[in-house]
Amino acid sequence: MDHSTLDYYNQNALKVAERYESADVTQLHDFLSSSLKPGGRLLELGCGSGRDAAFMVSQGFKVLATDGSASMIEQAKQHHPELAEHMVHLKLPDGLLNALGVFHGIYAVAVLMHLSVQDIESTISTVNSLLTAKGRFIFSVPARRDDVMTNEFDSKGRQFTALSPEGWTDLCLKCNLHIVRTMISEDGLGRDGAWMNCLAEKP
């Protein structure tokens, strides 16, 4: 992940975590919980405030939550202390190459777009190798974004790769994950734009 992107989250972790915790993510959580079998071992990429990991734990999943920002990890521990022993500081894509074991499901909410196309493909390829047979990968990315600059950085200085929904699903197919379903949802903070939630599965 680009250094300027990590710098943004490290320097604004308190504000970002509070914003994440205030978002209406009912649609997202329904999508996550209905796409995976309870009791499975899950890996979260980019856990942010710990909001989604805490929800999945409450639904009976075993979650290893990771984030590239050390400051966001600390915020997640404060907001959701029950996750403290199940969090790892891990930067994408190379951090995924460490021995993490295998997982029934891996999910990434509002994370992949902060990587270059090359790093997105590398991440998805490694995700495939970490999934069990029939394991599932769920990710949420903007379906539309109007404030991305022409140099692929947004107004906050974060790297931002804007792909079409087809572009995202094509990367999954290229990495030998087939698409089970997609869903378009509104922004949980009421901002302009929409999100694509995608469920892919390993053969």
From TrEMBL:
Q: Name one Pfam family in it.
A: Methyltransf_23
Keywords assigned by UniProt, alphabetized: Methyltransferase, Transferase
Q: Name one GO biological process term.
A: methylation
Q: What is the lineage of its organism?
A: Bacteria, Pseudomonadati, Thermodesulfobacteriota, Desulfobacteria, Desulfobacterales
PANTHER family, sorted:
TRANS-ACONITATE 2-METHYLTRANSFERASE, TRANS-ACONITATE 2-METHYLTRANSFERASE-RELATED
Instruction: State the species of origin.
Output: Desulfobacter hydrogenophilus
Q: MF terms per GO, please?
A: methyltransferase activity
Please identify the protein, giving its name as recorded.
Methyltransferase
**In the UniProt record, does the keyword Methyltransferase occur?**
yes
Superkingdom of origin: Bacteria
